[in-house]
Input
Amino acid sequence: METMKDWAIQISNVTKVYKGKKAVNDLSLYVEKGSVVALLGPNGAGKTTTVSMILGLIQPTSGSVKLLGGDPKDRSVRDRIGAMLQDVSVIDNLTVAETIDLFRHYYKTPLPLAQLLQISGLTNERSKMASSLSGGQQRRLGFAMAAAGDPEVLFLDEPTVGMDVTSRQLFWDTVKAMAGRGRTIVLTTHYLEEADQIADRIVVINDGRLVADGTPSQIKATTIGRTITFTAGPSVTNELLYAIAGVTDAEWNGRRVRLYSSDTDRLIAELIMRGVEMKDIEIQSGGLEEAFRSLVSSAKEE
Amino acid sequence: MDASVRRAAIAQLKSELLRTMRNKRFVFFTIIMPIAFYFIFTSSMDGDLTVDGIDWAAYYLMSMSAYGVVGSGITTLSKKFSRERSQGWSRLLRITPLPSWAFVLSKVIAQGLINLCMIIILFVIASVVKGVELSAAQWVESGLWIWFGSFSFMALGTLVGTIRNSDVVQVVGMIVYLGMSMLGGLWFPVESMSDTMRGIAHAMPTYWLGHGAWNLIGGGAFDWNGVFVLGAYVIGFVVLSSYIMRKQEAA
Output
């Protein structure tokens, strides 16, 4: 086991059974301090269950979970974490500033109130009753509460649900800034572009199992790769194409050819250098969305 | 207590005080209503009326003080607990460093402070406006009796608060509050009730809360029966609500 590194999260062979069904199935995941990890997966994949186990809100059926090297239920550990959970609404009869300030008092080294209001974009709403905020604003208030203790590990469970485009941008800018200060961030999302933008590691979970783990570009390259599509001239043959380095697959559709490769930039240079007859060239980089879909569907077929 | 826990609990306490005092329904039902009832029913009655030899204005002051703290405990705590559980707030607090006992304790202390203020306000109004005369010891003893007794109704509040739907909690809390107050003789003295109703009254914790105070200002002995009955109720409420909560969490 990799114990030498400074781990924020250590999940070893964790299984959680709910009503006879495995919500999480033999999952192992180690997260280094300072990394930004996105847990990606369709609804019901087990992301929230995984986060709840890391936070000590639910007990794994088997396996072990460590947060900052300790038990997530320890007060000393809780003092160093923060979380934005799903479906948390606000407390009644307190203003925005009062709610945040209450949370600040739970922690030993809180961030200043003004800074929390600023990073959640709620400075103008500070005197409003929290219950009168819009859904997106309530989510941002949730973020301010999660950040109140200046956490070393920050959990964001589907954080941008209900936020409008502007809120979402401000939110990710702030999270990026926190990540820049060496904070570990674990987020779950099914907004794939967001995971791609923010995370330096993506862990794809489906049916309670880890199906892929890597940097966003690794995930994209190893799953679907990129494609070059063109109409082939009469001299082009299947054998000729397979002889070119970097071609992983070729699909013919009449004279239309689609080549798969992990590096389409080098491949196109190679094709031109070899003087392969091509017309109407299209180069596509498989988006994360496609990568994600192919991962999830191939995991289902197994 | 760890200094950081104390700091967190005090902040929680302040927030609970603010939240309760900003709740208009609370202020109306448990502060304004007992005062209004007190004025209405002491003004409409014959000035020389006595109950068990106690001057009516003094007797009814105890009734209304008890009535106020009963409502404060039942309705406020039940609503807070139910709401916070159903809206994920309690779950969120479980990942903060605030221990759950400190969270519950600060709610109880906040409500206790509010109850104490309610009793003092009513006592001052009665003494200044209605000219109620009691010895210093009687003022203090009856006030403290009602105050200590009020904690048993907080236990009842946590029991009602185990109902998940917070709208249902509000209705049930009101019914329990008004029903128990009326049946327990806080609105109208048990002495004016039929035998059957009086029998029911004697089973109500509200009756025993009032009885101890009436006894103290009437010069009777300290009401150990009341202590016993209220204590039994507290144990019952706490055991039942923790049993229900554990069952709900297991589900």
